[in-house]
Structure formats: structure tokens, C-alpha cells
Model the fold of this input.
Amino acid sequence: MKILLVSFHFPPHAPLGARRPSKLAKHLLAAGWDLRVLCAAESQPLAGPHDLEIDPWRVFRTDWTDWRLLPDQALAKVFGAPAPSSAAASGHGAPPPARRSLRKRARSFARRSYELAFCLPDGKRGWRPAALKAGESIFRGWRPDVIYVSAPPHSSISLARDLARLAGDVPWGLEFRDRWAGDSYADHPAWRRALDRHMERRLMEEASLIGVVSPLWAEELGRLYDPEKIVLSMNGFDPEDQPLDSGRPDLQPNGLYLLYAGAIYPGRRDMAPVLEALARLTPEEQSAIRLDLYGDPRLQAAAEEAAARGLKIRVEAHPSISHAEIVARQYAADVNLLLGWNDPREGGTIPGKLFELAAARRPTLATGWSEGAAGRLMREKGLGLVSTDPEEIALWLRGLLARKRSEGASPILPAAIREGLSRAEQFAPLEARLRRLVEARRRAETPQAAPSLGLAAE
Done:
């Protein structure tokens, strides 16, 4: 069986969200599929590199145009180019501050208006022409039985539909790694949200399969669209990357080593509950704690806030490091942090990072909506604490610190918590549904023998 996997991002240079399409490609090949990948050439490395885990000849990369950048020249003509920092600092050649502020607001309004009206559903719609041309080239010598697209970007969903038409009206499916019309982080006006819902609905009606990575999303989309199309395939960990056990050096003897690696969204997904909890510990307890932050440059503000509060903990913000290095630190950490947004709109989100932390078998401190899908999974597996209550978090950390000092080491969670959370286990139902799509099409195309009209001999 042949499958074309469409994913705008794909290793080696790609954001962390591209790990799922890469692992899916690896899984499909292991399951016997003849696979090709169509992706975009990244203009610059993003949070990588990640290893390319399949043969390079299977991957087709194309150039693309970022629609978000198209109005830059026009905006420069109307509002002028942004003043160089040196000119702004010196005041030479720069307009008065009030005038600069007005220009900045007008420029920002013009850009946002353009993106809302023309970047539908996102700026990566500029990938479409090159991707369709590449698809035509691929199909001349190889034709898929099914096409599957991993989104976001959500503009790639309509691309997959049109590629399926080019390939001879083969069945196609999609997966939501993040929601589209129901995106809790999208700050769009009502008219744009309605337009997103309309576009999503039309494509969901045409798709043969809708993959989701959260049980709550499966329930929600099952109410909106044909529930028979929905297949739950959560994220997971790869045992080749994360064996049952690994080296666990003590990075904070007689204390706690806390680790966070990822992005933050100030006011939503941030370090505030953790810092509030740390402030409730005694100065002696604080001095025994080390907190390392990796990835998002905005995490530097958390380190500065800890210092401003006069906390005795050691907080350091670091630039991104390789995924393998982060995994090694997750195994060594006394506590791994998983930040979330304490809002029901975040309820369906299960960060892919949660599965990696479960594989590392160290206690996890998760903030966010405790009754959401991630919180339920945390409690079901006994992975640690889900809370945004600083007092509860402080009490939990105090208990872990006392236990480590008493026993000489932090707990390693039971191996059983990894069961059901591997990539292979989570991809299995998705792969089975894709296989059934191909088999159903083949049966429909197979000529049926005409019924016999002969009479039995007397």
C-alpha cells in the first residue's frame, strides 16, 4: 500500500511539532507501507535539528512563499521603514516619539487587518502552488493509494484534498495536532472565527478520516462531524529515544533539580504558579532548589522575576539544546515541569511533552486546567501533581525534598506507567484505519462477477 504524507514541517529542521509526522512516517514504513513525504523547505532552522529517521529519497521538499511577508514593501512605503535602533536611541534622524508611536500602531493595525483578511487560514497558504507542482511530478512515476496530512498549518488540509484529486480521487485524511476553528489561543474577531468554522466544516465533510490527538477533541469533533470518521491517535514516546531506564546523575545533591523545556505564553501558559509556590518555601528550602529553563527566550523574564522576588533558588534560562540532551536531563531531573493554561478552553490539549516525561519516569509538576485531558492522564498514570494552587504546589515540593533527603534519591516511577503511551501503540489504530480506507477503495474498484442466469438442468 502506498501513502503520501503531507506535512509542511519535517526534520531535520523543524519545530517540535514536527516530531509527530516524522515518527508517523517511521511507523508507517515499519508497518510495510510504501511512503513518500511532501514538505516545505524551511527558510531557517527552527528548534532543531531533529534527526531524519527515514531515507532522504522518500522526502520531497519545495520552496514556499510566506503570505504574511507580502505586504512588507507596501507597508514600508506607506508608514516608512522601522527606524534603526541606533537612530532611535540617539534621536538623530528619528521622528518624535508620539509620531513614532502613532506610526507603529497604524502599521500594526494594517498588518493584522491584512493577515485576518488574506492569510486564510494562515500565511503558509503560499506553499500551495509549489506543493501542487511537486505532487504532479511525484504522481508521474508513483501514485498513492491514500493521502494523509498533518496539520497545522491548516492551509495544508485543502492542499491534501486537491492532491488527492490529482492522484485520481484517492481517499484522503487529516489530523489535528492543534485545533483550527476551536483553537483556544487564536485571538480572532467573530467574523474571522465564523469563516474558519465554515472552511473547516467543508473540508471535514470531504475528508475520509479525521485524526485527533486528544480524547476530548475526539468527543467534540464527533459531535460536529461524522463520528465514524474520527480516530483517536495520541502522541507518544519512542522507546528507541527513551529506553526504560537511562543514566540519572544527581544534578542537585541534597536538593531538588527542576527542569522546564518549551514555550511560554505570558498570562496563559507561564511560570507564575511555580514561582508563587517557590516563594512559599522557607529560605533554606529555596536554597536547595535549582530550576533550569530551556528554549523560549521569554523564559529569561522568569529568571529575572525570581531574582526580583529575592528567592534563594538558583534559576537559569538557557537557549535551546538538542532533543537528545533534553531527554537526558528529563531522566536526571527530580521534577519535570509541564506548563499549561488554567482555562477550560485548554481542556482538550495534551502536550506531546507529557508522553516524554512519562517515559522518563520522574515526578511531573503540571500546571493548567486540572480537569482537562492532560490532567486526567496525569492522575490515571500517577505521574505527579496537576495544580495551579501555589500552596498545594509548595506542599508537594516540600514533601519531595524531604523524601530525597531521607532516602538519598528522588523516586523513579513504576515502569507500568509507560504502558499504552508509546508511539507504536498510539499510531496502531490510525494505521489500521488508513489500511481499511485503501482496502475499501480497492474492493469498490474490483469488478464484480455477474450473477448466473442459467437454469438448472431438469
Notes: The chain is about 40% helix and 15% strand. The first helix runs from residue 19 to 30. Residues 79 and 107 are 7 Å apart (CA to CA). Confidence is low (pLDDT under 50) at residues 83-94.
